[in-house]
Each structure stands twice: as C-alpha cells, then as structure tokens.
Write a structure and sequence with these properties.
By secondary structure, this protein is mainly alpha-helical. 79% of the residues lie in helices and 3% in strands. Helix 1 runs antiparallel to helix 2. The chain starts with a helix and ends with a strand.
C-alpha cells in the first residue's frame, strides 16, 4: 500500500514536474516571445521616435514654408498693389504725354502755318526789296541826270550873271555918257543892277540851304526847293514842307527846270 501510494505520489509528482516543466517551457517561450516583443517594440519606439523627429522637422519645415508662403503672399499682394499703382500712374503719365503730344502737334501746325506766312512775307519783302533797289537805281540815275542838269544850270546862271554884269557895266557907261550929255533919266545904276541880280539869284536858290538851285516842286503847296533838301526831309521821315509845314508824299515831288 505504501509503495503504491508512493508510486502514486511519485507519478503525481512526475506529472506535476512534467506539468511544471511544460509550464516553465511555456513561460520561457512566452518570456522569449515577450522579450522579442519588447525588443520589437523598442525598435518600433526608436523608429517612431525617429519618425516623430522627422515629422517634427517636416512640421517645422512646413510651418516655415507656411510662414514663407504667407510672406510671399503678402509680398505678392503688396507687389500687386504697387504694380496696380504703377499701372495707374503710367496710365496717367500716358494720358499726360498724349495731351502733350497733341499740344505739340497743334504747336507744330501753328509753327508751320506761321512759317508759311513768314515765307510768304519774306517773298513779298524780297519782291518789295527788288522794287526798292530798282527804284533806288532809278533815283540814282535821276540824281545823276539832275546833277548834270544842275551843273548845266549853274553854268547857264554863271553865264547869265556874267552877261548881266557886262550889261550893267554897259548900261552904267551909257548912263554916264547920257548924263554927260544931259540924258539918262530911265537908266539903271550899278547898285540897282546888283540888287536886281541878287534878287533874281534868291528867286532861283533853294530857301533851305541857300546854296543849290531849285529843281523840285511840292505839288500840294507849290513851294520849290532843291532835290537834296527834300531827300533829307524824306530820309528823316519829316515829310513836311519847310516853308509852310504842309505834309506831302513822295508822289507829290516833281521836277522843274528854271
């Protein structure tokens, strides 16, 4: 009985020991599995931490990119506003330049019109100048002819004066002879002859210069002067008769021959 009991207890112990060994083996397997799981989890933890670090860096980078994007957006908006302002300013400047161009075109047209008028006036002045030159040439020719006539008149006057002097001498001699013989009541004396010659000379001498002979007449007032004195008045724009101060024009000056 004891042996059977001991065998039963041994069998029980063996079964228990086997069970315990099995449990121990199972625990060892579980521990190994747990250790493997722990190692795997630690590796996962490290990986997750690395991923977390990467994600944090990415998040930080994304935040920086977001800030940069916001700054870029603000800068773009600001640039857009400035571009719009510059566009408006350029539009105003273009309008101003268009107005200035229009004004310059108007001024150009006006200047071209004035230039055309100036050219016409210049052509007219040139024509008048040619006429004036021709008139001057004619006047010079007339002056030369008048100078020749004056010289001829002076020579004639000298001859007349000489003849008058000789006539006066002959009359005086005849008067003396008649007086000696008791006649000659109607004869001229030398003094009378000189007075007569002086009077006649004053009648043909210009009253302005008292030197040259009268060779022109002012048709409006009929006063006579020498050509030189009348030309001086015309040149000085004092177209008034030296005798009566009546105004005259160049067409009122006419030649005379005494």
């Amino acid at each position: 009985m004891l042996i059977q009991r001991a065998e039963k207890e041994r069998d029980t112990l063996l079964k228990t020991n086997a069970r315990l060994l099995q449990q121990s083996s199972t625990k060892d397997d579980m521990n190994a599995q747990s250790l493997s799981n722990i190692l795997h989890l630690q590796q996962k933890k490290v990986e997750l931490e690395n991923e977390k670090t990467v994600l944090l860096q990415k998040a930080k980078t994304a935040e920086q990119l977001g800030i940069a994007a916001r700054l870029a957006s603000n800068a773009r908006d600001k640039v857009g506003e400035e571009a719009l302002k510059e566009k408006e300013a350029l539009g105003e400047r273009v309008k101003q330049l268009q107005g200035e161009c229009q004004q310059l075109r108007s001024e150009k047209d006006t200047m071209q019109c004035d230039l055309a008028k100036s050219k016409e006036a210049l052509a007219s002045v040139s024509a008048d100048l040619d006429v004036a030159r021709k008139r001057c040439d004619d006047l010079v020719a007339e002056g030369n002819a008048k100078e020749q006539g004056r010289k001829s008149m002076m020579e004639s006057l000298a001859v007349l004066k000489k003849e008058a002097s000789e006539s006066a001498k002959l009359t005086l001699a005849s008067g003396c002879t008649d007086h000696t013989h008791g006649g000659g009541d109607g004869s001229f004396t030398m003094e009378q002859m000189q007075t007569q010659v002086k009077y006649l000379s004053s009648r043909v001498t210009c009253p302005v210069c008292n030197v040259r002979e009268k060779n022109v007449i002012l048709l409006r007032c009929r006063h006579m002067f020498c050509q030189q004195c009348v030309d001086v008045n015309i040149k000085n724009r004092s177209r008034k008769c030296p005798a009566c101060a009546q105004r005259f024009d160049m067409k009122d000056v006419a030649e005379i021959w005494l």
